[in-house]
Amino acid sequence: MNARLLPYVLILPVTLFLAVFFLYPFALVAKQAFTQGAEFTFANFRDVASHWKFPISLKNTMLLAAAVVPVQLALALLMATMVNRMKKGRDLVLYVWTIPLGISDLAAGIIWLAIFEQSGFLNSMMSGLGLVDQPVNFLSYQNPMMVFVAIALAEIWRATAIMLVILVAGIGLIPKEYYEAAEVFGASPWQRFLRVTLPLLRPSLQTALILRVVLAFEVFAVVAALGGTLFPVLMGEIYSYQFDLQNGNAAAALALIVLGISIVFTLVILRALRVPKGATI
Amino acid sequence: MTAVTTDANPQDARKAGRIVYLAAVVLLCAWVLVPLYFLLINTLSSPEAVNSFPKSFFPAFDLGSLTFFANFGGMLSALKNSIIVAALTMVLSILIGAPAGYALSRFDFRGKELFRLLILLTRAFPLPLLALPLAVLFIRTGLDDTALGLALVHTTLAIPFAVLITFSLFSGIPIELEEAAWTLGCTRLTAFTKVVLPLILPGITASAIFAFVISWNEVFAAAVLTIENRTLTAFLLQTLGEAPLHLKFAGGFILVVPALIFIFAVRKYLFAMWGIANR
Amino acid sequence: MAVIEIKNVAKTFGAYTALHDINLTIQDQEFMVLLGASGCGKTTLLRIIAGLETATTGEVWIGGRRVDHLPPKDRGIAMVFQNYAVFPHLTVFENIGFGLRMQKLPNDEVKRRVERTAGLMHIDQLLKRYSGELSGGQRQRVAVARALAMEPDVILMDEPLSNLDALLRMEMRAELKGVLAESNTTAIYVTHDQVEAMSMADRISVMHKGEIVQAATPLEVYRNPAAEFVAGFIGNPPMNFLPATPKGAGKWAVGGQVIDGPQKNKALNFAIRPEDLRLADSGLTARAKVVEPLGAHLLVTCDIDGALFRAVLDSDMTVKPGDTLTLAPQPDRVRWFDPDTTRAVA
After folding, report:
1. What CDD domains does the record tag this protein with (chain C) (predicted)?
2. Residue B147, Cα to own-chain centre: how many angstroms?
3. Which tens digits make up the pLDDT trace of C269-305?
4. Residue A152 lies in a domain
């Protein structure tokens, strides 16, 4: 085999596959979003955006992402630095902390449902402690704040692990000498974290944040399990446009809006955490 | 704290720091494990106990809920569908992704950056959304409501990971090993099968398992693309509204268990594969 | 049994030229060392001979056969890599026998050859081990044994000793030389270490910026460097240079002194090795700046008219920084270079 052609032969399957199952459907979504019947139109976007549920579901999705992602980032950084200085039991602790990585959002929703539902463990605990006489229905329209908290907790519980894995891997690539050098020059542990770990961790932070933010906009099953229709989010609206309302064009338009938001945030993160050329480890 | 204790302060401070540190580790472990424990209690309780109040904080080891789950119409076939789709996804994503990972790690070629960008782009894209137009396409090609159709979509989801993970795995094998094999009488192909493959196999298994978990856990595309042949996630999502609590918990438990085992099986590779893939 | 001929080989990577028009013939059973600093193209040349890299233009002939279009396995070569490339998933035995198995030799022949080469390299005790259980030096031996077991026409070595510590390197140097001399193979050995090159080579090709500046025996390269680069690269400390102006009739003004030289009428560079200088009543006047006692000798770094000048003196001498020394060059060791072409002048 010609060595010059070989790499192209090797990437051909992926390229073809992505062309058929990624680029092509993407083009279809775009086309569907911009047409009604056979006509080019922005009407789908107008319809979707003017629907009364749109501002709420947009606000909910953004609020959830804004509440969840920073907490996850802080938590993942804390866990990663804790694991980094651990000698005994590191593997076990890491395994426990990465367990949620394998748990689907649906299962996570169900797990937290066991805690927050009316006959659930939170109520059992509170009545056991004599805080309430009657089990409280947390996940109802009377407790919108509780619904939000439950969903946010489930998301934090489930999806911190992926950030943790990326950050632990990233920290593992930073040579110990840098810390020793910083220590010799008089940096405190906190300064070492700020001045050495964080800047050198930028590529990993980038990946972790992009992945998490994009996934946060796709939040769906956790919400479905815990809030149902009480807490409309964008992905849930797409689902109901497609199935309950049988309006594929509107679903496509909304999908493009989600994509647009994801791309904007990806670019912002890429820009904010860019690594100057030559400043890599 | 009074002035008397200042002498012993550095020691005390270190000890206190150590205690805070250990407490934090234990607390964070509990944060992960306690919700899982609650799910376990519910799964191992009778349907009546699951719906009663207040809850016991210890499992009753009653298999009532699980039996109910197993006998619930369509649940077992949904479980079977989930396994088939995940297995197909696993095979497809490795077969398609691994050659590209090898190309990225071994060759400098024109368009390499563009290709990497395409891969990264798919990772930054709400992929399940593509299930919508594919649903139409699949109806036209007869792939609608089949395990293969869904597996193809899940493969799209898993492929960026498969490419990046295999890329970092191959990058971990020094090219000199291959070159040495070439000078010792191997062709490119035999060098790959005799030297690279044996070294890479555990890692490939790990990334295959990762693909399996991605598919196993996927909800949205599964719900959109299957109607009769629901996967477990799609089935549970569909029944969320009306299903009794004990069914939800037993189903959630069945969803969680294989994932736990798989994460345990691949834990060694989780970090290695993300480490290099980021660079 | 193989002569290697390299004809007009050039290699470019995009706009960068790694090798310019290389021509080199290596005789049957010769030990040729490619010597140069990193980035000089020596490894690229070796990899082109091995078939791991393709030349942009030019031909490679091994044993009268043109091989530049053949894959490595069909060139009759064996190679030892800098990082050894011992297969981690195979035992030492299977590593050494790897190439033989590829040739589908019968089991007893594989066993015989593996045991023979393992004995030669003193690793017959390690045959059942895996690479992870070996030290760097032992891995090195496995890599060499693996190449020798192929009984190749040509053995190519890419800095094989550079990852060993100094003592082990010296030991392996002698051993490798002995084993290769016995094996009757043609050897090409890439290194940046001039001591390795001097001690092992039949001939040295000194490379610089993608060209072979001089290909000659070690002593010739040392005594009669063909260019200023060779003079400055070989020898530790390197050769001294001083500008010389012609005084006519083969007389030259160097550092305020008049010295005999070639019949030329243009400015040249006068050159002398530090060890070819001795203290005398008349000679170059130098001011000592740094004095380094090295045990066997005394290395004195001096200043002559603002130019750096080193002398290796007997260690019994007492020289202090600031002393004025009179250094007499040994007349038959003086060399002359043309500063325009940097080549040696006869």
Report:
1. ABC_MalK_N
2. 18
3. 999 999 999 888 888 899 999 999 988 899 999 999 8
4. yes
